Amino acid sequence: xxxxxxSEGFKAHVVHALKLAKKQLDEKHQKANFxxxxxxxPLIKSVFDRLRxxxxxxxxxxxxxxxxxxxxxxxxxxxxxxxxxxxxxxxxVRPSVVARxxxxxxxxxxxxxxxxxxxxxxxxxxxxxxxxxxxxxxxSTFGGMLASKDDDYxxxxxDVVTAYLSFDREAxxxxxxxxxxxxxxxxKRGDAAMNLLTEERYAELDVAGDGKIDFEEFVFAFSKWVSxxxxxxxxxxMAARSANPLIKRMLLALQLSKTIQAxxxxxxxxTRILVRFPKIHKVxxxxxxxxxxxxxxxxxxxxxxxxxxxxxxxxHDGSTDDMDGEQVENMFMLSDxxxxxxxxxxxxxxxxxxxxxxxxxxxxxKKSTLGGIISETDKEYRAAMMDIVAAYLTFDQQGKGYFTxxxxxxxxxxxxxxxxxxxxLTPARWSELDHDNTGxxDFEEFVxxxxxxxxxxxxxx
Length: 461
Fold this sequence. Notes:
Layout: H1 7-27, H2 34-39, H3 41-58, H4 68-82, H5 95-105, H6 119-135, H7 142-147, H8 151-165, E1 174-175, H9 177-186, H10 190-196, H11 199-205, E2 213-214, H12 215-226, H13 228-233, H14 236-243, H15 247-263, H16 270-275, H17 277-294, H18 304-315, H19 325-335, H20 348-365, H21 379-395, H22 405-414, H23 418-424, H24 427-433, H25 443-454, H26 456-460
Keywords: Calcium
Organism: Cyclotella atomus
Protein name: EF-hand domain-containing protein
């Protein structure tokens, strides 16, 4: 077979991999059906969201792209994890293959050539890596490593390949506009495809403008289509959260927590957290007492100027004096779930969110933040905050930054001792979690709702 380090050889391998994928579909008597794939968009999107989180983790210099050095480092870490499995037979990471993959996936025009891969280009790279690894089970690629231990990822990438083969019926490595029109004519449910594949969408496919759409171009556009509803539904509140400079660091912190769980072979188990509610409640009572003590005007809210004093009371060592004021304000804005604004202050539950946000940021950065500095000197506080993070990751099992009602239901249903959890996590509880009614629950929303659950008995009494 051709050399992967050359452009022609790389293309030849991709086409050969597509032919193998088509052969497998034929052997199973399955037709590549794009309309069926449309119905699977939510599942594919959840995997793409995870890839976005991985991209953020790999982007160590924070410039929005991944270069060769960052990618090889990430691949090497994955490969080392895979070596622990006796069934792993993959060859070591080959920089020449990584370099060629990067160059083939750089579809967006950037100010500097070879600057690296954007998020959508990274998804393209993962898809290409997946089919190359399917073709050669010895080859180490980013997408192949992920697929080797993740069934959801494998299904999503298989759907991407099937979607492409819906148009390139001969697996020749490209398709044209005529072939797209042919699909619409032949499909009994072609209306669904036509609603998606408008003229504007087709124009998105032909990135090179040569009238032919290859696999890389298709995946690039497909990643936009799968997440199209996100762009349409983002409201002012979600946009404001996304603009907060701490969001990216929060995502990295969740990814780190998930990695630590995996290394320690600890499964996120909400039922186990339920047993620890009394100890968490004890820490929440301390936080509530501090909130009340520093609520000087007794209006039930802590103002921004009062937060450092309140946290110093918890820490007992005055180490909050040199805290970055801008960071404190950004933490405040994340914790202000009622969107009352800085002048109004944080209520008790929002103050608990503030402490949890500070804790997880401190864990990721390994340095002081409000809510994090206490964790080194107070084992009880640290254990409670770790329980909160573990409870959240029960539902956001990929650490992508949010979870849905379906993911929460699936997590509860699959729990080995899920009866206690199921009695707590009712539809009414979901409404308590989804504070902004977007259908997605992020870390701050979860902590807010979780604080209600832990202290539910207080309210009843």
